[in-house]
Amino acid sequence: MAAPETVEVAIVGAGIVGLATALRLAAEGREVLLIDPNEPGSGASFGNAGTLAEYACMPVGNPAVLRQLPKLLLDPDSPFALRWAAFFQLAPWLVRFVRQSLPAATRANAMALAGLLAEALPAWEEMVKEADMADLMRRNGCLYLYRRKSDFAKAAGGRALRAGFGVHQEVLTPGEVAALEPGLPPTGACGLYFPDSMNVTDPKTLMRRLLDAATARGVSVAQAAITGLRVEADGVRLSGSGLRIKANTVVIAAGAQSRALAMQAGDSVPLETERGYHLEFPTDAPLLNRPVCPVDLGFYMTPMNGRLRVAGTVELGGLAAPANPRRLALLDRGVRQFFPQLGRPSSEWLGFRPSLPDSRPVIGPSRGSRRVIHAFGHGHLGLTLAPITARLVADLIAGRGDPDRLAPFAADRFDA
C-alpha cells in the first residue's frame, strides 16, 4: 500500500509500542500511518523474554547494582557488561546511571514505574480481546530463582520496595520451588514467585496478530527509515528513504533509534542502547511451566510453543557492533546448568533495547511542539508497558486525562 502524502497521525516505529498505539488510535477512529524500515514487530518486540512483568518496578540502576558495578563491568561474563570500545560514547550515560542508582533516585524511579505497571495487565487484557490473542497468553506467574543465600539477602531491598507498592509476591522454600517447577534439577534454591504475571507463548505470532488487527481497522503501513523531522505551523513533516509525508501529529516510538528524531523535535534525551540476546532450543514438551529467572545469571528461561527461549543479560555498547559470541556462549552455558540434555540451539538473536539512565520511558509531548509525542525508552519493559503507553498517547491526542500524570516521564526531566 502506497503511503499517503498527508495523514492525521504518523507513528515512527512498528515495534510493540508502535503497533499497540496504532491499534488504539485506529479503534478511536483516527487515520494512522505506521512507518518502519523493517518488518513490524521484528526487533526487540520479537526477541524478548516474552514476560509481562507487572512486578518489575525496581529500576535497573539501584543501590545493589551500584555496589557491584565495578565488578559487573570488569567481568566479561557478568550479567551486566560493557563493550569497552564504546566507553567514551557511554561515559555521560554511565554518570547519569550512577546518580540514578542512589537510594532517593531509585525510590522515585520505582514509584513512577509502579504507577504505570499497576495498569499494565488490565490494558493488556483489553488489547488481547481487541486483537484476538487469548490463545497466545498464559497467566501462570513468573519465578525468580535464588541459588545462593547471599543473593536472596541482597535482594531484600527490592522485595521491600515492591511490597510497599502493593506488588503480589510470594517467597518460596526449595520444596515449594520444586513443586512449582518439577522439571528443574534439585538445587536447593529458594524462590520469589509473582503469581499475577503473564507471558507470551509466541511473540512473532503475537506481533502479526497486532498488525493484522491494526490494518483491519484501517492502519496503513510504510516500509521506510525516517531520518528527517521538521515541525511546521500546520503539522510535522517527515522524510527519509524516499518517503515524504506530512502529519497532524507524529508519535516517535522507534525504540533504540528514537534519539535523533527526538533531538530534531527539540528534545535532548540521554537514550542509549542495551544489546539483548536470546537463544532458542527446540523441545518436544515444555521443560518449565512458566518463565524462570536465575537471578545470579541474569536471564529468563521461558517456555514457548515448541521451544525454550533463553533471553536476557545487559550489554551496553551501541547499535553498530555485531553480535558478541561471548554473550551467546554465556546464555548457552547458563541454561545447561539446568538442562544439560539440551541439543544445539535452533536460533540465536541480537536486538536493541532503548535504555535510559533512570529506567523510566519517555512518554509525552515534545517541548518543541505538542504535535510530536514521545513513546520510547521502555528498556526491559516495552512488551509489558505497550498497551498502557498506547492508552496514554491516545489520551494526549484526544485532549483527555491529566497532563501532570506524565510529568515523571517527560523528556525535559533530564534538564536538571
Automatic annotation (TrEMBL):
List GO terms (cellular component aspect). cytoplasm
**Family matches, as SUPFAM superfamilies:** FAD-linked reductases, C-terminal domain, FAD/NAD(P)-binding domain
- Whether Cell membrane counts among this entry's keywords is no
| UniProt key word Oxidoreductase | yes
Q: Show the InterPro entries listed in the entry.
A: FAD-dep_OxRdtase, FAD/NAD-bd_sf
Gene3D superfamilies in the record, alphabetically? D-Amino Acid Oxidase, subunit A, domain 2, FAD/NAD(P)-binding domain
Which residue numbers delimit the FAD dependent oxidoreductase domain?
Answer: 9-396
- List keywords of the entry alphabetically: Oxidoreductase
The UniProt GO MF terms for this protein read: oxidoreductase activity
Report what the protein is called.
Cytochrome C4
Write down the species.
Answer: Mesorhizobium delmotii
